[in-house]
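Same chain as my last thread, 410 residues:
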Amino acid sequence: MKKVRYKIALLVGGSVLMTLMLILLLFNLLMRRQIDRNARESVGTAVQPAPIDQQLLYIPSVIELPNGFQDISGSRFSSEAEKAIAEACRKDPPKGAEKLTIGGHTYYVCTDTLLANAFEVVYDGENTVITETNIAEGSAACDELPDGTKLPNGEISVIGYVDVTGELKMIRNMNIFFLAAAAVICAVGSVEGYLIGRRLEQNQLSQKRFFENTSHELKTPLTAIRGYAEGIGTGVITDYKKTGLVIASQTEKMSRLVEDILMISKLESGAMTLEKEPLRLGEFIENCLMPLEGAVMSRGLEVTLELAEGTVSADPDRLDMAVSNLLTNAVKYARSRLEIRFDGRTVTIANDSAQLTDEEVGHIFERFYTGKNGSTGIGLALAKDIIELHGWGISARSSGDGIEFVITVK
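reply #2:
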């Protein structure tokens, strides 16, 4: 039976992990596809004579190779990275926009060859600005700059590139963070699944004990009835009046047990409805205690009644069952005294029973819970359900020398 908790823990944890991994996979696919599309669109503008579209996510950098790809030694590079990109493109010229990984960095590159018959040059004595590759009207064309730099005539090779290393690194860091969070969530889910499984195991065990005890409680009166019936049949028993009373008593015991089981079934299915009417609660409690007067007197219990006047709206038949179950339990386990109080807002039923542990008190209203005395636990569970169906509250606590039930009337 203990395997249930591990199976549920594995099922919950595995389901959570698979869901999170699927989310992570979709996130990576979408982000990388977005980066790829934006980078390809941006790098393509580097080799076009049209102005760069400023709405693009990336602004590409441009490498000019005056002598073409065959001889890059005469080209000027702003960094070693540009030189490495040019060398990679020389060895394996990309076809369109392609992704390259160089020195731990990821680039999108695109190459093209442009016509450059001359350049329009503006020289102010300090700075040289190349404004465009075609000679504008009224401009002067030259083949070299004042500093001696030769300007190409004919064709010029151009490499446009975009560095997406930062974005990819950010995605990797997000993946690490997401995986760490997924591990924590998966662990929490597994623990929760384990606890759910343990509660299911306890419920299964409680139901098993309940059926065993219920079978025993049904079997005991049946055995008694059968014994008396056989005694009458064989002529051993001649006191038919006493025998009839015993058989009726045992039959009533079985009837109450079956009625409780049927009532629980109605509560679970939601088929039980309440027919409320005004009740004088103090007087109602006295009437519920009256059938137990014989048991109280035979055991010599000291009863304290402090019942204030007050009217509530309740279903008399259902409430009678709930209060009677609480009173029966209190009388059954009382050693010398019983206290019943109603102050207009709360009903308190207390006795001086044997001390209960906190764990036992925590399970006292639990359906199918079997106490150390072997009781089925139906009566108190049924009382709690009926009281809560009225919209009221009920609790149990261990007092200094017994148990105390408190009903909060709303």
